[in-house]
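Aim 2 progress update. The chain analyzed this quarter is reproduced below.
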Amino acid sequence: MATIESAGTISGAGAGFLDRERTIARAGFNRWLVPPAALCIHLCIGMAYGFSVFWLPLSRAIGITAPKACPDMSLWQELFTTTCDWKVASLGWMFTLFFVVLGVAAAVWGGWLERVGPRKAGFVAAICWCGGLILGAIGIYLHQLWIMWLGSGVIGGIGLGLGYISPVSTLIKWFPDRRGMATGMAIMGFGGGAMIGAPFANLLINYFKTSTEVGVWQAFVVMGVVYFFFMTIGAFAYRVTPAGWKPEGWTPPSEKKTMISEHHVHLDNAHKTPQFWLIWWVLCLNVSAGIGVIGMASPMLQEIFAGKLIGHPELTFSQLSVDQKTVIAGIAAGFAGLLSLFNIGGRFFWASLSDYIGRKNTYYTFFILGIVLYALAPTFAAMGSKLLFVLGFGVILSMYGGGFATVPAYLADMFGTQFVGAIHGRLLTAWSTAGIIGPVVVNYIREFQLAAGVPRDQLYNTTMYILCAMLIAGIICNYLIKPVASKWYMSEAEVAKLQAANAGANVVQTGSFGIGTGGLDAKAAIFWLVVGVPMAWGVYKTLESAVKIL
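Predicted structure tokens:
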């Protein structure tokens, strides 16, 4: 009878260095090395959230000190012009490209990732994300917006999708006893990427800018090289569990007492179940509410509190001078940074909490607490309480991040772990949809309110109540989620055959095989420092800006 270890050796002997067979863990491997590997990738691709730091410098790439505007230019002409500066709104389309392509890429290549393993997927993600940055730099240098969109937006977006889902299935299998915490640790990195990347990009822009250059294409090149280095480390540090592995002494929870299934649903069938689409809507509605706030966080604080931010409570936004508006814009940037910090912390906190209270109850908490806080937001604004307003939206953004981090574990509970990475990839189309719905709801209602003559400090009241309605719909969807019907389960023979094929063995045993022990040993501690030091620097820079609010 072949053991798992010998099976891995046999199957890995002729395998390529990127192949799944070469990543099967051996005796003595410490599972706590996998989360920092995931963070190496997620902290890099998370810079997608921080790309707005480039918009203002790029909007004067030709004019240098001020934009060289061509007012009558269409978006199509803007894609190819070499003589006019780009509008900030046109550059902002990069966000839409990022998250639409991310969702599509994750859905299309999720099944491929399950077959080839996280190392190959992570390395391809590094090539796409970092190669996209380099191609984007070329587009900036040649002043061709279409090249920048293609490079950073489309090719980089594919890297985002593959990089985002690359660790999910692996971490859930390594931490069946702490699914939420494990995915929370990795996905927290995506929220933290902008916290590190935005100030890093600012440093690079200021270093490279001259009287004839705004310094952005050079920043793209440096970030592409640095990110490729860290993402490659992460990809090659990935290890997958041997088939049949489980933590020593761990017993799966009773399926009768929890909604954690002991069975597996095939990727080809998951989307045929009502549970998949209910969770799809749960994620979409939770994200739609949060992402709209993220996009408008800075102007929302400025317009609602205006002079109160600088000690002149009698001044409305329209009454502020240009210099005063500049000051409060800086304060609002600190608000956006603080929301980013809540977004990151929420990914770890809520996902870890879901291991104890269950995924369904965690989402109930998101929706009920979200409704209360959105409904109270206009009251906090009317009271003029910056502290309550900021804390309220901080908690909202923590639940926005928590929704992303909790959903992979929710899927594993429903559909088993065999195809959870690919199923998660398909579910991320909900994110792509929310990336359109959320900003459209917030932005267009704001414009409608402005046109109707509503005072700026009351522009967002109606929006908050509409977001409450979206969260009520989320509660209903979450309530309707029940365990998957047994007709969708893979048979034990199908699962065993699939696991044996992945392990390169004829027989799959169950046990710990001396793998996963060690805790935070010296090697793991060093790896955690590699990702922890940049995160600590990002937190420091965020708090440095955020303290100006109060």
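Residues 1-14 have pLDDT under 50 and may be disordered. The CA atoms of residues 76 and 307 lie 40 Å apart. These observations will guide the mutagenesis experiments scheduled for the next reporting period.
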